[in-house]
Design brief:
The complex is a heterodimer of chains A (139) and B (244).
Chain A (H helix, E strand, L loop, with lengths): L13 E3 L3 E5 L1 E3 L3 E3 L2 E3 L2 E3 L2 E4 L4 E3 L2 E8 L2 E3 L2 E9 L4 E3 L2 E2 L3 E3 L4 E3 L2 E2 L1 H11 L3 H12 L1
Parallel strand pairs in A: 1-4, 2-5, 3-6, 4-7, 5-8, 6-9, 7-9, 8-10, 9-11, 10-12, 11-13, 11-14, 12-15, 13-16
Chain B lengths: L3 H18 L15 H10 L4 E6 L1 H13 L7 E6 L5 H6 L4 H10 L1 E10 L3 E3 L3 E15 L2 E13 L3 E5 L7 H10 L9 E4 L2 E6 L4 E4 L2 E5 L2 E14 L1 H7 L1
Parallel strand pairs in B: 1-2, 2-12
Antiparallel strand pairs in B: 3-4, 3-12, 5-6, 5-9, 5-10, 6-7, 7-8, 9-12, 10-11
Helix pairs in contact in B: 2-3
The chains are: A alpha/beta (139), B alpha+beta (244).
Chain lengths: 139, 244
């Protein structure tokens, strides 16, 4: 439901037609499909599909975000972001699974929280090395 | 040949007979120049009836609903419906196929709580509301914290405030329509829109009519609200089973 606080799916999701322009926050607990133009935030706890004819100026956050249109704003997905060959993203991306198809445009910074954790773990020395180092310093 | 009035009287007699056979008794009233449907419904509420049955077309049912939804005393009153057209949306909604099934549904008294649409200031409806024009029109709308502009030639508003915008662009030119028909190709629908909301305001440059059951209820600008689970209606037993 638009603007609603419910988290469960509420029937068929919101669909924004190609000849529709929206200003404000579009929020739905179900899937959102956008063929039109939106100036503002798009939030869903499920999938967001931004089709070829769509243009979004504002942040987008959902579970799975698929971009075939144009987005100027930050993209955040709890599961996956997919940028299709016709997709254009100008803004930061935050997700744990990213797919950018050949032909797509992405200009911005990408953050993958799970990948960063892994990188940090790799940087940290293991316990044995740490012990040896300590002993060496004492000697 | 039977005159329309005689037809109505004979239908009323038939309904009374079926209800009598099913063991259902009650007061029967008909609107007249002296008493409107709204007044009769109000009287039924004052008399303390627990069930009011609307017999007739959807427009009549919506008038009864408006009285039931606006009066505090009618909070516990249940609405029964005997439609005059069993192919109508209201007949499908309560799941009755003929007169006998509608009367039997009253006997079984399976209740269903339904959402209603409130059209400001004080009109309620249970079936779809439609705004339709021949050509695409610019329609301005606001849904909670969203404001929008849509090109549409048809807007359907369903109880629960589910709003569909249909755009004539989908049909394309007559030539392309013919071409698609010839080769059986369907154009992907990227023009229609769907929203579910609690409040909707619709405005347009030209005044457009909102029709419910073929009757004009109001003209733009319109403000509609969803009134969730506001009314208890009697529905057919089969329908409730199917829903479950």
């Amino acid at each position: 439901m638009l603007g609603g606080k419910t988290t469960g799916p509420s029937g068929p999701g919101t669909v924004v037609g190609a000849n529709v322009k929206l200003v404000g926050t579009l929020q739905d607990a179900s899937d959102i499909t956008i063929h039109g133009r939106i100036e503002g935030e798009v939030i869903s706890s499920q999938g967001i599909s931004i089709t070829e004819t769509a243009y979004i100026k504002g942040p987008v956050s959902g579970e799975v975000v698929t971009v075939a249109g144009k987005v100027r704003g930050a993209l955040t997905a709890t599961s996956k972001i997919e940028i299709l060959p016709t997709g254009k993203v100008f803004g930061s991306i935050t997700t744990k699974d990213l797919s950018i198809k050949s032909g797509a445009i992405f200009i911005g910074k990408c953050t993958m929280p799970e990948g960063e954790k892994e990188a940090e773990e790799e940087k940290m020395p293991d316990k044995e090395t740490l012990k040896e180092t300590t002993t060496y310093e004492v000697e | 040949m039977e005159s329309p009035k005689a037809k109505i009287v004979s239908r009323q007699e038939k309904i009374k007979d079926i209800l009598g056979d099913l063991g259902i008794a009650g007061e029967t009233v008909s609107p007249s120049a002296a008493r409107t449907i709204e007044e009769l419904t109000h009287l039924g509420i004052i008399k303390g009836y627990s069930t009011i049955v609307a017999v007739g077309p959807e427009s009549l049912v919506n008038k009864v609903i408006t009285v039931l939804a606006t009066q505090k005393e009618a909070k516990d009153v249940v609405l029964g419906i005997i439609p005059d057209d069993f192919n109508s949306q209201i007949a499908r909604k309560i799941g009755v196929k003929d007169l006998y099934a509608a009367c039997e549904a009253l006997k079984n008294r399976k209740l269903e709580t339904v959402d209603l649409c409130l059209l400001e200031p004080n009109k309620y409806f249970l079936t779809d509301g439609t705004i339709e024009t021949f050509f695409n029109q610019e329609i301005y709308f606001s849904i909670e914290n969203l404001q929008g502009k849509a090109l549409a030639n048809k807007v359907i508003i369903k109880p629960g405030l589910e709003v569909f915008f249909y755009d004539k662009s989908l049909q394309g030119s007559p030539l392309s329509s013919f071409w698609r028909w010839l080769f059986g190709k369907e154009k992907p629908d990227i023009y229609s829109s769907f929203f579910k909301t609690k409040r909707l305001r619709i405005e347009s440059q030209n005044s457009l009519s909102l029709k419910v059951a073929g009757q004009t209820l109001a003209k733009t600008p319109l403000t509609l609200h969803n009134r969730s689970r506001l009314l208890k209606i009697i529905a057919a037993r089969d329908r409730i089973k199917k829903e479950k």
